[in-house]
Design brief:
The protein is α/β, with parallel strands linked by helices. Helix content is about 50%, strand content about 15%. The strands form 5 sheets. The protein has a 5-stranded parallel sheet, with helices on both faces. Strand 8 (about 280) and strand 9 (about 285) form a beta hairpin. The chain binds one RNA strand through helix 2, helix 6, strand 9, strand 10 and strand 15.
RNA sequence: GCGCCUGUAGCUCAGUGGAUAGAGCACUGGCCUCCGGAGCCAGGUGCCGCAGGUUCAAAUCCUGCCAGGCGCGCCA
């Protein structure tokens, strides 16, 4: 339509109705109100300025041209202060149904990614404890982003970066070792800044099971290391299980420790050194990140000779780039936002545009039960685990809730609401819409009513406003996905689906699809016409209307399934 | 002190520079002999944090304030 209006503008100039030599690309969008037509544009107001004429006048000129040039247009009207409101011919809408049937599960998919490779890194929690709600939000988001980007033509790999090196791991090892000693009646203290959660017991138990009391005789350093390694292994295994149960799996699990052993950190830093971006000061080694947009330089190797976390991260991202990824996307907790500039500096240091790395920040989750906040204290090891939540409300509800808000805003997650099986619960509202349709088609089959292909139906029978609204909303699916992918914002999908489900329920309440059973034989009198009169208790639908509606609803079902699928949420046949 | 994020209806939140700013929840009252009532309908609410600016047009862009959150380590 945008190009149609552009064409109208050019034609108007050719005919001497407009003077300008160049026109802006006409912006077209869906008007807020139905009375304003199907599409609208404000170009006239921009053009009016350069033409030095009133917007209404210019709009009028464009409208005239558009009517004659564009066959899709049914009517064009002009509204103050200068909007063009276009109403399309009904066939345009019916074409949407054909497209959905033709494309099926791929409707709305695109090729904007052109097969470019994306490495999507998310969750990446330290293996020092079970996953909690914040990780769950990141997991749901990452999974949805992966599916969304794949649907947009990107080749996506999901990766979990295991932070199995550094201080936190040392503390874990200390904590487990201390408990191990305690379990064998030796005196010991769990370090104050170590880990104290109940899960430490299980970890220690596992170490005992595997090693017995062998570690008592080993040197303390070896024993400590063994404790740490075994604990971390077990935790990674459990994290992986939790994620599988949540419906999230990764292509690769990348170990930070491996960056040390493989020499990749040294390599990456050597590369930076060659580029003159590393220098020594105060006995430490620094990365000259201020040369890019970072506010100051950063230490990569401490005075004591150990690498900093940044060093591993630089090496890790260097490695990602070397593996041939065109785009790197990281899902991080919002408390790491200050880290973004220095990571982008690293990307630039290796000679790439900083846009190559996009970081999606995820804000905290506030957990409620029946409106009351559940306090969590990570220090005391008391927090609600992802596993606990998934067990309680189910993976579907949990994912949907995590994805209902923009990722960079705080999220309220009410466990009672997520469990509720009613219209107040958005997940059920949407899933119910799908199950309801499945059930409808089941009934249709049982009654011997065929569900034909789009081509076999007389779609012109779809004239009720509720039907047209449904079709229009279906037509918005591809655009919504495109925006969602561009902005890395899958919450748009949840809103879209709630709206679609709402439109369906309204339609379904108001109109019949299958002929009433008592109606038995088709009534020739009501051919091509629907009567719905509650007071008379007569409900009749012609065969033509039944078929057209079944065809329409089939496509609604496809979109509900596709949309839920992109969120990683199931579309149940029955509930 | 500096930086980032957020400020929209009673609550939780949508809102690619466009028209009279929306949804869900909560509240009140209705609607099931027939395709799933896990549903539908009807009721009202806003100095879009404040003040300037850019624009034909600002919740949206710019500047300055105010409030809340987060960050500002040779921690990860």
């Amino acid at each position: 339509m945008s190009s149609a209006i552009a064409g109208a503008l050019l034609q108007a100039r050719e005919r001497g109705l407009l003077q300008s030599t160049c026109f802006p690309r006409p912006a077209v969008d869906f008007p807020r109100k139905e009375e304003w037509g199907d599409l609208s544009s404000g170009v006239a107001m921009v053009v009016a300025k350069q033409e030095n004429r009133s917007p209404l006048e210019v709009a009028q000129v464009i409208a005239e041209q558009l009517k004659t040039t564009c066959p899709l247009v049914k009517t064009v009207s002009v509204a103050p202060p200068g909007f063009l409101n276009v109403t399309l011919r009904p066939d345009c809408w019916f074409a949407v149904l054909e497209a959905i049937e033709r494309m099926g599960d791929r409707y709305g998919h695109s090729d904007v990614g052109r097969g470019q490779r994306v490495l999507l890194e998310f969750v990446s929690a330290n293996p020092t404890g079970p996953l909690h709600m914040g990780h769950g939000r990141g997991a749901a988001l990452g999974e949805a982003l992966a599916r969304l980007l794949k649907s947009s033509g990107y080749a996506v790999d999901k990766e979990y970066y295991i932070n199995d090196a550094g201080r936190q791991m040392k503390l874990l090892a200390d904590s487990v070792y201390a408990r191990y000693l305690a379990m064998h009646g030796r005196e010991c203290v769990v370090p104050e800044d170590g880990y104290h959660g109940d899960y430490l017991k299980d970890l220690t138990q596992a170490v005992v099971q595997e090693q017995g009391d062998r570690l008592l005789t080993a040197g303390p350093e070896d024993a400590r290391r063994t404790c740490g390694e075994l604990a971390a292994q077990k935790l990674v295994r459990e994290i992986r299980e939790d994620l599988v149960r949540f419906g999230v799996e990764f292509e690769t699990w990348y170990s930070e420790a491996s960056l040390f052993s493989s020499g990749k950190i040294r390599e990456a830093l050597a590369d930076l050194e060659q580029r003159g971006l590393v220098f020594a000061k105060d006995g430490a080694t620094w990365f000259r990140s201020s040369q890019f947009q970072d506010e100051k330089d950063r230490v990569v190797c401490k005075q004591d000779g150990h690498y900093t976390y940044l060093a591993s991260d630089i090496a890790y991202h260097f490695d990602k780039l070397r593996r041939g990824y065109d785009w790197l996307i990281n899902v991080w907790g919002a408390d790491h936002h200050g880290y973004v500039p220095r990571m982008q500096a690293a990307i630039q240091a290796f000679g790439h545009a900083k846009e190559r790395l996009r970081v999606v920040l995820v804000q905290m989750v506030r957990l409620l039960r029946g409106g009351k906040t559940i306090e969590m204290s990570k220090r005391a090891g008391e927090f609600v685990t992802l596993r606990g939540v998934v067990d309680e409300v189910g993976a579907d509800a949990a994912k949907f809730f995590f994805l209902m808000r923009r990722s960079d805003t705080h999220l309220e997650f009410d466990l009672e609401l997520a469990k509720q099986q009613s219209a107040e619960n958005p997940v059920y509202y949407v899933q119910y819409a799908h199950a309801r349709l499945v059930s409808l088609f089941r009934t249709a089959r049982d009654r011997g009513v065929p569900v034909p292909a789009v081509g076999e139906a007389s779609l012109a029978a779809l004239r009720q406003p509720e039907e047209i609204r449904l079709i229009k909303h279906l037509s918005g699916f591809p655009g919504m996905l495109e925006a969602s992918a561009r902005e890395l914002a899958p919450h748009r999908i949840t809103f879209y689906l709630q709206e679609l489900a709402g439109l369906l329920h309204v339609f379904y309440y108001k109109h019949r699809v299958l002929p009433s059973q008592s109606d038995g034989v088709e009534d020739p009198e009501c051919n091509d016409r629907e009567t719905f009169d509650v007071s008379n208790e007569s409900v009749r639908v012609s065969r033509t209307v039944t078929i057209a509606r079944l065809v329409l609803l089939k496509q609604v079902q496809v979109i509900l399934r596709n949309g839920l699928g992109l969120l990683g949420v199931t579309a149940p046949e029955k509930m």
